[in-house]
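tool=predict chain=A
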Amino acid sequence: MLHRIDEIPLRAAGGTGRLFVTNFSAVGPDPSGALDRVGVSVVACMLTPHEIELRYPDYGEWLATHSDTAGSPRALWLPTPDGGVTTDGPVLELVEAVVAALDRGDSVLVHCGAGMARTAVIGILTMVAFGADPAIAAVDFRAARPGGGPDGPPQERQIARLVPEARQLRPSS
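tool=predict ok
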């Protein structure tokens, strides 16, 4: 069974990469196959090691193997608790890495367990970095990934806190 991989619209001039989001079941069993399926060169994972170990333990090894390839990693990993947030600094660093990859022309696939909430934090902040208004970015994210969006006040507050920094990640925005 092929799981949904949805494209998130980036409505700004500049970067030629494309942003995709999905769930763990689309990536975990065959990460390289999932990336090839939509022509993606970088995956950004939001799962905790425990979540990976429970479902697709080999994926953790794949992430480790592909996380540092001469300054241009194929895998980015920010373990974040389900339904929660992690520290603002690392979240902003991940968004910055995603934006840099998109600006290089790479396409990026972001996922968490369901590809809805933790993924939405990164997706919406990336959209903001590309010039989207935060409220419009949230609507556009939900339209592209039905059911997607922040999972309550902690994630909503994190997005709001990081909007000013996200707006500064691209000099052209």
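The radius of gyration is 14 Å. The beta strands are 5-8, 19-22, 42-45, 75-77, 108-111.
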